[in-house]
Write a structure and sequence with these properties.
Layout (H helix, E strand, L loop, with lengths): L11 E5 L5 E5 L18 E4 L20 H13 L3 E4 L12 H18 L3 E5 L12 H17 L3 E4 L3 H6 L3 H12 L6 E6 L16 H14 L4 E7 L3 H10 L5 E4 L5 H6 L7 E4 L1 H4 L1 H12 L3 H8 L3 H7 L7 H11 L18 H13 L6 H14 L5
Parallel strand pairs: 3-4, 3-10, 4-5, 5-6, 6-7, 7-8, 8-9, 9-10
Antiparallel strand pairs: 1-2
């Protein structure tokens, strides 16, 4: 069980507000979650995890990648301890947004190896991002690119998350084009995969995926292709930030196929489900809130739905803030949470993307994380927040 709520914290710091004033913010009552899973789960839950950059590397962050491998794998160990699976080398890890394919494959290889040593759950992203969009001239080029990455992931013993393809978004004109690519690729996979439908709010280059900008038609096309390959599909991750579309798709999928919510705005109610079903989870926000997510899911499995919502509900405002438009910059908030909670000793990101959110955004993130009880060590988090504010000219 979570510990009883403590008296109001004596910690405080000065935080900026949108009106350019500075408030003295007093931290809320603390809340502690277990560091390891308590009891079995009745939902499969993946955390799409971030990559820890190496702040000591002598590189140009916009042009090359430098990873702190020890801290990166240590974070995955933290997630596995909590009973969550790892969705590796996805957009949360800045895949295709700073993390290139060779580094992604090294990350996948290391992560799969670490998972096997402890019999933990990991699926890894396979896509076409080593094929420059301008170099993709035909659907066969897209198919070959998918085949290359799938082969590489399977060679190191990994399970596949089939990522959306920017090259396919460029070349695919209709349902037949998408069916050609997915049918061919899925026919070759060794084990059932998770298919990821990533909305253009996460990646503008994926606008018009499934051959149309009409989401109703896109849903029809995707469901037909996925159900037609049901034996090769473990599940579908939908990242459209539209809970009703996810529910509608969930009800249309072949009964053998799981729905993994990718809705970082509405995940609590989608995981809880209704009388017609529920969603499992594959979420970027579960990187930032892993201890709370693990404990909430254990309460749900124990039949304590009220306890589930009591823990997970307060995390939703934080998630909506982290994933606010431009949504593709959400990685900055995820990594900032890891810094505040001591999973890394710096706020440096692959691609230099620590600069994509404002000081005001980070200040509000701190408030919301505190109110949800997500600051594992409030004293440490407060010191680190003050350090970041000071580098932005705000003395606290």
């Amino acid at each position: 069980m979570t510990k009883p709520v403590q008296p109001m914290s004596s910690l405080s710091l000065r935080l900026p507000r949108p009106d350019r004033s500075i408030e003295t913010y007093r931290l809320a009552a603390s809340r502690t979650f277990p560091a390891k899973l308590e009891g079995p789960l009745n939902r499969i839950a993946f955390s799409a995890v971030h990559t820890v950059a190496d702040p000591f590397a002598d590189n140009d962050p916009w042009l090359s990648v430098a990873v702190d491998w020890d801290k990166t794998i240590a974070f995955r160990e933290h997630v596995w301890d909590l009973g969550l699976g790892v969705a590796e080398a996805m957009d949360t890890a800045q895949r295709g947004m700073g993390l290139d394919w060779p580094t992604s494959l090294e990350l996948i290889t290391r992560s799969v190896g670490a998972a096997k040593r402890r019999n933990a759950l990991v699926f890894s992203g396979a896509g076409t991002d080593h094929l420059a969009v301008e170099d993709a001239k035909s659907l066969d080029d897209v198919i070959r690119a998918y085949e290359e990455q799938i082969s590489a992931v399977e060679k190191v013993g990994g399970r596949i998350i089939l990522m959306a393809s920017r090259a396919l978004a460029k070349l695919g004109r209709n349902a037949d084009d998408y069916a050609k690519v997915y049918d061919r690729v899925l026919s070759q996979v060794r084990e059932p995969v998770i298919i990821h439908w990533l909305g253009d709010m996460f990646d503008p280059a994926l606008t018009g995926y499934w051959g149309t900008k009409d989401l109703d038609k896109a849903m029809d096309i995707s469901v037909a292709i996925i159900n037609g390959n049901a034996a090769k599909v473990d599940g579908v991750k939908v990242s459209l930030l539209d809970k009703q579309r996810e529910i509608d798709m969930r009800r249309r999928l072949d009964k053998r196929i799981r729905m993994y919510t990718g809705d970082d705005f509405n995940y609590a109610e989608l995981i809880a489900g209704d009388e017609q079903g529920f969603s499992h989870a594959l979420l970027g926000i579960f990187d930032a809130i892993a201890p709370a997510a693990s404990y909430a899911l254990s309460r749900l499995a124990a039949g304590d739905e009220a306890g589930f919502h009591d823990v997970l509900g307060p995390t939703v405002p934080l998630s909506r803030h982290i994933f606010k438009a431009p949504t593709r910059f959400y990685k900055t908030g995820v990594v900032f949470m890891a810094y505040l909670n001591g999973h890394q000793d710096h706020f440096t990101m692959v691609g230099g993307q620590e600069s994509t959110r404002s000081t005001l955004h980070l200040a509000e993130l701190f408030r919301l994380a505190d109110k949800a009880g997500l600051l594992a060590n409030p004293e440490l988090a407060t010191r680190r927040m003050k350090t970041v504010l000071a580098t932005h000219g705000i003395e606290s």
